[in-house]
Amino acid sequence: MIPLGRIKVLSEKEIQDRPYIVYWMQASQRTYMNHALEYAIGAANELGKKLLVYFGLTDGYPEADRRHYSFMLQGLADVRRSLMKRGIRMVVLKVRPDEGLDKLRYLTSMIVTDRGYLRIQREWRLNAAERADCRLVEIESDVMVPVEIASSKEEFSAATIRRKLEREMSEYSVPLYEGECNLKSLDDKLDLDELDITDESILDSLNLPGIAREVQGVTGGQERALELLEEFVEGKLDTYGEGRNEPGSGNTSGLSPYLHFGQISPLQIYMRIYDIKSPGKAKFLDELVVRRELAINYLYYNTDYDSFSSLPKWASETLERHLQDEREYIYGMKELEAGLTHDTYWNAAQTEMVLTGKMDGYMRMYWGKKILEWSRTPEEAFRIALELNNRYSLDGRDPSSFAGVAWCFGKHDRPWGERSIFGNVRYMNDKGLKRKFDMERYLEKVENDKRVHGIGKEEHTS
């Protein structure tokens, strides 16, 4: 049973007398605990139709590069294999996703889709609803509590949204069971120009920037996500609360890229961990639910989420008041991208992100704060931080990434003691890193990353 709050009809048009229910998979790229998929299976069985899963592969996704597409295609191959076991046909077309539905119109009696929160994802769904000649239903499957039900406005902090989420959790943290299609579509022949997503030449055929090369040793997909979840529960959860911020410790779940691509459900993670007695459980679930859904709330209610103008008034005003403060160091985009600053720790964090597609959480906060300190204006710093994060992080272009960068500039935070350049925005320095953490251990980790990838610092952006 899917809670009604997860279901939203985008187009009230009639269900057509055609052979397929089409599940337009875009954000929830998985078959496990996928509310949209299960809703589509239920609709197909109720209407006596077959189910067709469609994915539109566009090379026009803002700021996405080879590493992101490689990770995603590995995940889609996982999805196809899983759907085959359930007798369900999957179609991948090289097309802008909303426009690709037009190619399936003659087959489609009804469209079911999942939900995305970024501007482009919302535009795709609104365009599809306008163009479709049949009913289109959107199912929210990538949050614990649907965004509008969690809150009707933009929240100021984790504290303000936490109470609202807690009130709704019992209704939405319920199991989702897999259904079976009564009519199988796996062997159906369709007159469509389909992509073979296992063909390694697909990446070369896409018009991608080619800056952020694929990350070695990282595998996308729901099966790998489930393995990582088990590794985390068995070996890292107990020490997560005290060790998650320690740079170089590896004491994190590693699931953020998989959550970003919808390759694992937050509900599945929540249900796996909820009944475990562990000192790290409360902190991890707070990150998974409260912090993550605060970020989604930010994107949903703040149309300027990718702009300096999205910051709270107190933050933008205090930064503007200190615009003329003397800056000891100023670096531009090229120097920052190549990790060529005077700060060894910052350079290591940038190198880690370029090589591995991720950055230790505490270092990402430090990294963003220093870009603010070393840029001519806070607006320029905001733009550079977002561009670098979105280009190189596997979980870039995600609500949590947008919110994380904005946090470095005061979003979801409070005013602190006033100081040069930062004003009342929270400040961080390398002395704090050395006082709290074993930074030599972190530098050794990054040096090892460089050896593993066989790349010197001068080659990071090549």
Automatic annotation (TrEMBL):
Coiled coil: none annotated. Its EC number is 4.1.99.3. InterPro entries: Crypto/Photolyase_FAD-like_sf (IPR036134), Crypto/Photolyase_N_sf (IPR036155), DNA_photolyase_N (IPR006050), Photolyase_Class-2 (IPR052219), Rossmann-like_a/b/a_fold (IPR014729). It catalyses: cyclobutadipyrimidine (in DNA) = 2 pyrimidine residues (in DNA). Residues 19-147 form the Photolyase/cryptochrome alpha/beta domain. Pfam families: DNA_photolyase. Keywords: DNA damage, DNA repair, DNA-binding, FAD, Flavoprotein, Lyase. One of its GO terms (molecular function) is DNA binding. Its cofactor is FAD. Signal peptide: none annotated. GO terms for biological process: photoreactive repair. Belongs to the DNA photolyase class-2 family. PANTHER family: DEOXYRIBODIPYRIMIDINE PHOTO-LYASE, DEOXYRIBODIPYRIMIDINE PHOTOLYASE. This is Deoxyribodipyrimidine photo-lyase.
